[in-house]
């Protein structure tokens, strides 16, 4: 069974950082210096649990940017990413955000499109990986 917890970095940071290290630093080869930033301390963080194991994480910045979405490889394609995204969108709505945006890795564009996100602008590169800005209007 999947359980989603939304909280601060103080509460969820230990589990979120373990997942992000595994997915972004070890699996995708992103430099550690690129992974950690000042936004963790003031963002809402979700952690997805499968039974008693933390298997996914993502964050919502106060200005409405979703990022750092990661699911451990052996737990992908089980709806965990969707559950985390829907939880963050619920938080954004509670905070009366009108638009949320994200910078999707190229292979995740279809996933975000299925949730109503629309590409904006041209593709760009972040940490050497192709990305696309996408946005979702929460007022319609």
Reconstruct the topology from this structure.
Layout: E1 2-7, H1 9-27, H2 32-35, E2 44-50, E3 53-60, E4 65-71, H3 80-94, E5 99-105, H4 109-114, E6 118-126, E7 129-137
Parallel strand pairs: 4-5
Antiparallel strand pairs: 1-2, 2-3, 3-4, 5-7, 6-7
Describe the structure.
With 140 residues, the protein is α+β, with helices and mostly antiparallel strands. It has one domain (2-137): Gcn5-related N-acetyltransferase (GNAT) (Aminopeptidase, 3-Layer(aba) Sandwich). The chain contains four helices and seven strands. The protein has helices at residues 9-27, 32-35, 80-94, 109-114, and strands spanning 2-7, 44-50, 53-60, 65-71, 99-105, 118-126, 129-137. A seven-stranded mixed β-sheet has the order 1-2-3-4-5-7-6, sandwiched between helices. β2 and β3 form a beta hairpin. The longest helix has 19 residues, at 9-27. 26% of the residues are buried. The model has no long low-confidence stretch (mean pLDDT 96).
Entry summary:
By secondary structure, this protein is of the alpha+beta class. It has a single domain (2-137), classed as Gcn5-related N-acetyltransferase (GNAT) (Aminopeptidase), CATH 3.40.630.
